[in-house]
Specification:
By secondary structure, the protein is an alpha+beta fold. The chain folds into three domains: 103 residues, no CATH class; 54 residues, no CATH class; 60 residues, no CATH class. The chain is built from seven helices and seven strands; from the N terminus they run ααααααβββββαββ. The chain has a three-stranded antiparallel beta sheet, with no helix packed on it. The protein has a two-stranded antiparallel ribbon with strand order 3-4. It has a two-stranded antiparallel ribbon with strand order 6-7. It is globular and about 75 Å long. Bound molecules: zinc ion (2 copies). It comes from Pseudomaricurvus hydrocarbonicus. This is Zinc chelation protein SecC.
């Protein structure tokens, strides 16, 4: 099935709700008569639709400035995409837009100011296979492979007798849900700027990270004791304050559609020098 949903108002229609229910019903029927191929195909169709729905929700939250909620939906997409990718082929990934979603999720995530996460460390007593319920032991394996499909169900290893050992603060977590920041202290202006151009979740866009130099007088509003605009981490006085020009990280967005000239100006975060 080719998925045509692009906007939040497409998701909550009666047709889509019925279709999502139908998929589950069809899968159950196929599972009952052990038509494994059909059950797996329906799993794939259903998960691919769900990932489209999640991505549209992420986009809608980004558009409305709910960055934390959007982050959660993006992470949901990332996890689902891993399993879809494992159980399909290139053609399906393209047609179902999973490939597009995977790439977009990475791009959106990389524009977030988040960099610290909580990562819990567990000691796991034992794992069981979600398909047959057997204990997973190093030597005697049940034969089911983690992440593969069996009669329309994904094989996962479920941990038991979990003991929380530690909670670490990390910058590259295994799962990205537990953000440690208070959003109100962060700058989301890059995402806000990007979202002001995008109208729906499946528009083509790219970005390029570069550095750009501005004359020193443009930084009048930066105090000597502030962090240096060049993002070295040093304070302005001890870094670029004495230079004629200051180089700053800069992002160029590239869109496939035409952008009106009045929207093409360079966004400079420090305001312009006071007139008069
Ligand atoms: Zn098993
Ligand atoms: Zn500097």
């Amino acid at each position: 099935m080719k998925i045509e949903l692009t906007r939040i108002e497409h998701i909550n229609t009666v047709e889509i709700r019925n279709y999502r229910e139908k998929l589950l019903e069809w899968k159950q029927k196929a599972q009952e008569i052990y038509d494994e191929q059909r059950a797996n195909d329906i799993w794939l169709a259903s998960e691919s639709l769900e990932v489209n729905v999640l991505f549209i929700k992420a986009f809608d939250n980004l558009k409305n400035g709910n960055f934390r909620e959007a982050w959660g939906f993006l992470e949901g997409c990332e996890i689902k995409c891993v399993f879809i990718e494992k159980n399909s082929d290139k053609r399906h990934l393209t047609e179902s837009r999973v490939l597009y979603i995977q790439e977009s999720v990475k791009k959106f995530q990389s524009l977030y100011p988040y960099c610290v996460f909580v990562s819990p460390g567990f000691k796991v007593g034992y794992y069981t296979c979600s398909i047959c319920g057997q204990k997973v032991r190093p030597r005697s394996r049940c034969g089911h492979k983690k992440g593969s499909l069996y009669n329309g169900e994904l094989c996962l290893h479920e941990g038991h007798e979990l003991d929380l050992m530690e909670v670490s603060i990390v910058s590259r977590p295994v799962q990205k849900y537990s953000v440690m920041h208070d959003d109100s202290t962060l700058d989301f202006s890059v995402l806000e700027h990007l979202m002001s151009f995008l109208e729906h979740a499946f528009e083509e866009w790219e970005y390029e990270k570069k550095t750009m130099s501005f004359p020193r007088e443009k930084f009048e509003s930066v105090l000597e004791s502030d962090k240096c605009p060049c993002r070295s981490g040093l304070i302005f006085k001890e870094c670029c304050s004495g230079k004629e020009e200051v180089s700053m990280p800069h992002i160029d967005f590239i869109f496939s559609k035409d952008i009106p000239p009045e929207k093409q100006e360079i966004k400079f975060p420090y305001g312009s020098p006071k007139d008069g």
